[in-house]
Amino acid sequence: MALSSPHLQKVLLNRLCCNYGYKKNIIVKAGGGVRGGEGRGRCCSAIAINAPAPLTSVSGIRWGSTLIQGPREEMEDDAVIVQSDDLDGFTYAAVFDGHAGFSSVKFLREELYKECITALQGGLLLKKKDLNSIRKALQEAFENADRKLLNWLENSGEEDESGSTATVLFVGNDTLIIAHVGDSSVVLSRSGKTEILTNSHRPYGSNKVSLQEIRRINEAGGWIVNGRICGDISVSRAFGDMRFKTKKNEMLEKGVEEGRWTEKFVSRIQFKGDLVTASPDVLQVALGSDTEFVLLASDGLWDYMKSAEVVDFVRNQLREHGDVQVACEALARTALDRRTQDNVSIVIADLGRTDWRNLPVQKQNIVFELGQALVTISFVSLGIWLTTMISP
């Protein structure tokens, strides 16, 4: 990668900013509660306030986290890692991917954790591993947080249409709990094999989750245009987004004024529920001795790298140097080099069960590599032949 690359220059600038303390993204407090960092900008990577080295939990889990602003004008992503006595051995981590502003993310990074702790009775429900009770508690927590956010946005005195996805992890010694709203994704590496644990809440495609989301939106009185709800938003579950919840009629009126819809079209619409919901998918995953790491990232990564490719990349990074924070930052840089058009947020939990230094180097598929080389040579040869044919 050439030093003149604008993407590399951006990454180096981001790392310098973070190293000198201009930005504090990840919030860690050991006595309960969450402290907020100040300032937004183009800076990106830190895992804890004033803690440049990878964060290690009591259970031996090592954490890394990176936020990098892509080519977008605003940085609307955020990530939080919280180790607290309130969680009774579990660590809380979350990635927020905002849209139409940062207000909803700013609210959630403080409040969603509090709602989860209250609903889960601290770590009591997590330790019992009763998925039905955990699911009910986290659904209650997410819905309460969304209700409070909508009220906060309503009373802010501004016309704030912001919203945010949120994917939350509770990582324990042998258990992972996920509560998921939106299009960030969680993957797991078991002895190098990739397990995709979440499904994106997007109203397009033919997979089961997408079809369920489309049906729910239609039943609520909404419609889909080019994979977007009412031709607007591309995620079907998110916090905030008042125009799809408490201000649907105002959205229609505004659409008529702007000429997007006719009064005749609007007169036929009858809403029967929220078009966008903050109700989470909740799942519980066993972390066995073969589980290497858990990775959570926003869609700015997954839209440009496949899950198996990401897992292989992180494994090779950890085998090379064993530093989860360095691996996290290198992965984000790779997304930038792939020309991601979005912001990138990544959280990795290395479960501390793998001797990375003694892990064999992952063998490349020789046949595939040879095939790629032959294809490249063929194209180059064809180009040379065509050049000679058209030259005078």
Automatic annotation (TrEMBL):
<dbReference type="InterPro" id="IPR001932">
    <property type="entry name" value="PPM-type_phosphatase-like_dom"/>
</dbReference>
<keyword id="KW-1133">Transmembrane helix</keyword>
<feature type="domain" description="PPM-type phosphatase">
    <location>
        <begin position="62"/>
        <end position="351"/>
    </location>
</feature>
<dbReference type="GO" id="GO:0007165">
    <property type="term" value="P:signal transduction"/>
</dbReference>
<feature type="coiled-coil region">
    <location>
        <begin position="128"/>
        <end position="155"/>
    </location>
</feature>
<dbReference type="Pfam" id="PF00481">
    <property type="entry name" value="PP2C"/>
</dbReference>
<dbReference type="InterPro" id="IPR000222">
    <property type="entry name" value="PP2C_BS"/>
</dbReference>
<dbReference type="InterPro" id="IPR015655">
    <property type="entry name" value="PP2C"/>
</dbReference>
<keyword id="KW-0175">Coiled coil</keyword>
<keyword id="KW-0904">Protein phosphatase</keyword>
<dbReference type="GO" id="GO:0046872">
    <property type="term" value="F:metal ion binding"/>
</dbReference>
<keyword id="KW-0378">Hydrolase</keyword>
<keyword id="KW-0472">Membrane</keyword>
<comment type="similarity">
    <text>Belongs to the PP2C family.</text>
</comment>
<dbReference type="InterPro" id="IPR036457">
    <property type="entry name" value="PPM-type-like_dom_sf"/>
</dbReference>
<dbReference type="GO" id="GO:0004722">
    <property type="term" value="F:protein serine/threonine phosphatase activity"/>
</dbReference>
<keyword id="KW-0460">Magnesium</keyword>
<dbReference type="GO" id="GO:0016020">
    <property type="term" value="C:membrane"/>
</dbReference>
<keyword id="KW-0812">Transmembrane</keyword>
<keyword id="KW-0464">Manganese</keyword>
<protein>
    <recommendedName>
        <fullName>protein-serine/threonine phosphatase</fullName>
        <ecNumber>3.1.3.16</ecNumber>
    </recommendedName>
</protein>
<keyword id="KW-0479">Metal-binding</keyword>
